[in-house]
Design brief:
By secondary structure, the chain is an alpha+beta fold. The chain has four helices and five strands. The chain has one domain: 3-Layer(aba) Sandwich (Aminopeptidase), CATH 3.40.630. It is 32% helix and 23% strand. The chain has a five-stranded mixed beta sheet. The longest helix has 15 residues.
Amino acid sequence: MNIIIRKATEADSEKIWTLMEQLAVFEKYIDSFAITPEIVKESGFRKNPPDFYCIVAEDNDKIAGMLVYYFLLYTAQNRPAIYMKELYVDENYRGQKIGEQLMNALKIEAEQNDCSQIKWTVAPWNKAGQKFYERLGAKENNEWLNYELKI
């Protein structure tokens, strides 16, 4: 196995969508999952600027993992931040530090774009995810509560 970490291209759209669908099953929102491969292609690669960016872990022709993010351009620090929307590694590739490699690539992206921080959320029931992020040096931010307004 030879894992290559790289920025995703439009040709990866279908494989990225497959991992997004697997993530929706894992996080138990598959019933409301509305993303299609065409949406991935259009939103991530054909729009300018794109709605999201993606880093992938590639093993030959297979996408073993993905990290989806976007920039928060306006912050109080007058520097952008990165919001990590999705990090997912195919279950056949877990335990091989692919998630850590994807996070390291995101840190490099943040540094290259003068970002002040990387933000994300993790489900309270996802204890393995929480341990993973803490092992990388992340700290839970309990200064703010998450709210949402469904439309």
